[in-house]
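Fig. S4 source data, part A: sequence.
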Amino acid sequence: MRKKRNITHKSEYIISIIAINVVFFLFVILNFTFSYQSTKSSNIEKANIISENIHQNFEDQFNQVASFSRNTFLNNDFLFLQDNVNTNQEEIESYFASSLQSSSSIVIGTGYIPKINQELNSDKRIYTGQFDGFFSVNTNIVKSYLIEIINKSYEDEFTNGKIYPVFDVNNDVSNFIVFARNIKDIRQETYNTKLGIGFIVVNKNTFLNPFSLTSTLNGFDASITINDEILFSSNSNLLLNNNYIYKSSLNFNNYYLTTYYDTSTIFKDLFFSFSLELMVYLFIIIAFLTIYHFLHKDNIKSLNYLFNSFDKNKNQTELQLLDYTENDIEVNKVIQSYNQMVQSVNNLNKKINEEKEEANLLKLKNKEFEIENLYSQINKHFIINILSVVHSLINLNDIDKANYCLESLSDYLRYSLSFNIKETSIQNEIESIKNYINLQLIRYQDINVFYDIDENCLSYEIPKLILQPLVENAFVHGLKKKKGNIKISLKLINNIIYLMVQNDGIVDLNILESINENIKNGIEIKTGNHGVALVNINKRLHLMYGNKVKVYLTVIDNKTISIIEINLQEETC
């Protein structure tokens, strides 16, 4: 039996821990889902703001290039100088240098391939600015790009005023981005005559600096396209299939800004964050279990001692006294009350045996009723069940409720074991019943108990422990499913006191008649319901009140009611 109880308590403890963890993990999942949706919405809004800032910055960059192009290559001073390009080369270089110096734009250099004798001649190129080293190095790379520029110019891809990026070489010229445009005459007498190709050079890092804003949001990238071809991007490993795409025109020669946001990075970031929270939670759980075991190991040891002792006493013909624990005050209170009960029961048994030959029949009968009632009230199984509840409460760390249980049990036992008191007031009986009910309600939380007490009758005396069997019958036999209502009533009507215990259970009418007949005849037959308790109560009350007492069982409105009637004759409350 002891082993079985240990498994039960251990299972309850494990189930409690599992339930707490299940609730926690459900909370984590719901919180994760909410956080994901909230973060996703917030980050997409942030992505929109970043995209707008990048768009505005690149619009400013291209506008500076376009403005420099117009001011430099469509200026009358330049058109006049290029008319005699062979003789005015130094003046054109000086003109370019002056344009660069007066410009506050991002342009760091400019150049010009003139058209001489109807042909573009790259050998006659004129240039100035920080990129001199690029054009001065007569490499195959430079020659190939110049040839490409000239060929495209003949195809008229660089129409007058439109600027296109020509090269962004990833070697010794990787710091430059070169834009090119056709230069056509705007003077009336020579209008639309192709004069050559103009170059505008910008620093690559400065020009692409708006891309740095993408680093403010994890998983965010951007690119600049023309005719759906990517010219520049913030990331060489650009993922074009990301979830969020923002595309907007830069209002400049069919250039578009496209931004991409990989929403899966939200999941990755949140997963890492929640993993850390889970690790912290597991650490707290382990620490709690360790501290809990350390703090309550003595209490658990004491309760286990109680269970073992009660189990041993179950099979004994004579109850044995229990030894006290070393340091558990509350458990020792229960042991003290139990030992008092054992001593009283043993003494009473001894006294009854000694008085059987000498006492008169009435006195002997009273003692027999008293000992029978004592055994029925101080139910060992009831005490063990209550102590099991206390054990569970301690496991759940509900120390206040555990103390409340022990105090109610002590008060109940103290009243029950006061053998020098044969009769008591109805008020004391009601208070004792309340202690008993409070203990039962801790076990059966789906049962409701109501009281309807006429306080004018509380001072009347009745035999001690008369009501407790009726209430116990209501819990055990009346509400077999441990759900429903119990009502305890005390009324005075026409000089008759009515003590009533009502429950929601229903007794078969045939059994009801049999029980009432047995009560009337004083026959104790165990029918598995209210019968035995009512027969004993009727005998005890008749010894005190004679025929002024009636005890019976009835069913009214589908409710079973145990009723005690005490006729006061001419007395009034």
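Fig. S4 source data, part B ends here. The first helix runs from residue 2 to 73.
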